[in-house]
Specification:
It comes from Oryzias latipes (Japanese rice fish). This protein is 45% helix and 14% strand. By secondary structure, it is an alpha+beta fold. A hairpin with a 2-residue loop joins strand 12 and strand 13.
Length: 373
């Protein structure tokens, strides 16, 4: 069955890709977790360049999101996205009346028929969920709704203490979830406020379905820790801890006299991949101390393997240029308009920034790196 699903997947994408919400980053070509984080930060930092502004960020958690899809409602949404009727009916039939049971040791439960949600491990499930939530968007320019599969983030860009648009969009999201059979998990939904004003007033709490939302100082967003002061030490400390733990295995391979070439491959796949996790997001805003701590891991690996390895700076530059190049080449990418060529066609237009926080973020830094080529 999965083989047939893999045949249906590109067929489904061919009809729906041009109509997908540009702020849905999951399961799309030339889109990554880093893109979602970088664009969210760009919206926030560009807004905070103006005086008297702050941002409220709602990190939404759904209860068993993939298991709540209604096939009949999904079929209507697919038809609106110009998917052929025959394909829609096949998908509905595929999701309806699924038989399943639970096995525990030698004990097997009675078989149940299920007609909601998508099967676990199904090839089509991630795309079907993205299509199901495609119409969930923001209607106000000052509120951005960024999605990565079922990870949904609502960013309110507040000016002059006017939160009315943000609160309306939160209410619209709650209403949309109710209509589309998605249940908000208010216990795990949290809010982060980024506010660098010298004089601030306590913000009224946000209420979802009669439950107050918890205000937090930091949150794990798509694998990266975001703090209310937008500093990256917690994320980098987490990466350092993981990389140091994996260095043990490199030592063991050295004692086993593994060839240097194979040790380099191990280092690249197991340790370097940790050091460069979301590096385009945090590197230019990291402190010199944190960068040096990361570089010490690289130097330790060089001593173990006995050859030179790319520095953290080199890894950042290569990944940023590669990521920015792909965004610049993809007109459908929501960050494409930020990488505009000057009339000469030789250099990119610089992005105006007023603060070092904004200047050191991904898009302004990427423009400088590409212009330096």
């Amino acid at each position: 069955m999965k083989s047939f699903e893999r045949l249906v997947l590109p067929h489904l994408k061919s009809f729906t890709s041009p109509l997908l919400d540009p702020l849905q980053f999951a399961y799309r070509a030339n889109r990554s977790v880093d893109d979602a984080i970088n664009l969210a930060l760009h919206f926030i930092l560009q807004h905070l360049d103006s005086p008297g502004t702050y941002a409220r960020i709602l990190f939404v958690d759904f209860s068993s999101a993939f298991n709540t899809i209604l096939p009949s409602l999904l079929q209507e949404k697919l038809l609106q996205l110009n998917v052929p009727d025959s394909t829609c009916r096949w998908i509905t039939d595929f999701l309806m009346d699924r038989r399943q049971c639970v096995r525990l040791g030698k004990n097997v439960s009675t078989t149940q028929s299920i007609s909601t949600g998508t099967p676990q491990g199904c090839v089509l499930s991630p795309l079907l969920f993205s299509l199901y939530t495609n119409c969930c968007t923001s209607s106000h320019d000052s509120v951005k709704l960024i999605k990565f599969a079922d990870d949904t983030t609502l960013i309110g860009l507040i000016s002059n203490d006017d939160e009315s648009a943000y609160r309306r969009e939160v209410d619209r999201l709650v209403s949309w979830c109710s209509i589309n059979n998605l249940e908000l998990n208010t216990q795990k939904t949290v809010e982060l406020i980024v506010d660098f004003r010298r004089v601030t007033a306590p913000s009224p709490p946000l209420i979802l379905t009669d439950s107050p939302i918890t205000l937090v100082d930091s949150v794990r967003f798509l694998g990266t820790t975001i703090t209310q002061d937008l500093k990256w030490e917690p994320s980098i400390c987490s990466l350092l801890k993981k990389a140091q733990q994996r260095m043990y295995f490199l030592w063991r391979l050295k004692k086993a006299r593994l060839p240097a070439q194979m040790m380099v491959q191990f280092y690249t796949a197991i340790i370097e991949s940790i050091l460069t996790s979301s590096i385009t997001v945090w590197y230019t805003s990291a402190t010199t101390r944190d960068i040096n701590r990361l570089q010490r891991i690289v130097r330790s690996a060089e001593k173990v393997i006995g050859c030179s390895l790319p520095s953290v700076q080199e890894l950042y530059v290569s990944r940023t240029r590669g990521r920015a190049g792909r965004i610049a080449a993809d007109p459908s990418h929501p960050g494409h308009s930020l990488l505009k060529l000057l009339p000469s066609g030789r250099r990119l237009r610089s992005i105006r920034t007023r603060t070092s926080r904004h200047k050191n973020s991904f898009f302004p830094s990427a423009v400088r790196l590409l212009n330096a080529l």
